[in-house]
Amino acid sequence: MSPFPYRLVATDLDGTLLRSDESVSDRTRDALAAATAAGAAHIVVTGRAVPWTRHILDDLGYEGIAVCGQGAQVYHAGEHRLLTSLTLDRQLAGLALSKIEAEVGPLALAASRDGLEGEVLMGPGYLAHEGPLPYVPYEDPAELWSAPLTKLYVQHPTLTDDELTRAARATVGGLVDIVMAGPGIVEILPLGLSKATGLSLAARRLGVKAAETIAFGDMPNDIPMFGWAAHGVAMGNAHTELRAVADEVTASNEEDGIAVVLERLLAG
Question: 35-69: string of b/e by CB count within 10 Å (b at 16+)?
Fold first, then answer.
């Protein structure tokens, strides 16, 4: 058997490591365990903030470093503490938001507060995804800006996610970053922040280089991570923008796409 060719396996969560019911298959767990036994580290790199990620990491028995909040948070799962955290400039975010709304009309808003216990606030009209993830509804807009934030979420009543992302980038691309992270999830982030930012910080702590990393993802917010890693693998269910820059496309998240690639690499 040939040695495993990478020292770091970076996986997105939703649509990648997780199936639609938020579970991780036994086959994928076994493949990741075999990769780590062969000397690679596994690191989760997700758009979710820590409070929406912690229960998944605990279920996996994951005790290493995770990159959360689109790269804003580097989290030590075993010690349950934040190693780094970058917040969104609220004044700049407010300016960006007003410029976007002047261009496309009113938006429904949500926001992720900073910290280990940072709440996700959801405003009137924002469509939350079904599931167990907790959020706090708000009516007074002042609540949105009353504490440090890692990101804003925006939704438009008629524009598609792709259309809203393009319009927002064209309007405020020099003030903040705009990413599309999933169905109904368009985010406003600090300028220059990406999954690659957080992954590079975490990899440095592990003593691993980009050239030693394989990354798996499914959405446009994974593009910077693919640009940083030596090898980017798009899931079979991936967005067309990510597939266009991927080094290869594997099976979908429902069909153990991560395991398919890792098993092949482990077999040499």
Answer: beebebbbbbbbbbbbbbbbebbeeeebebbbbbb
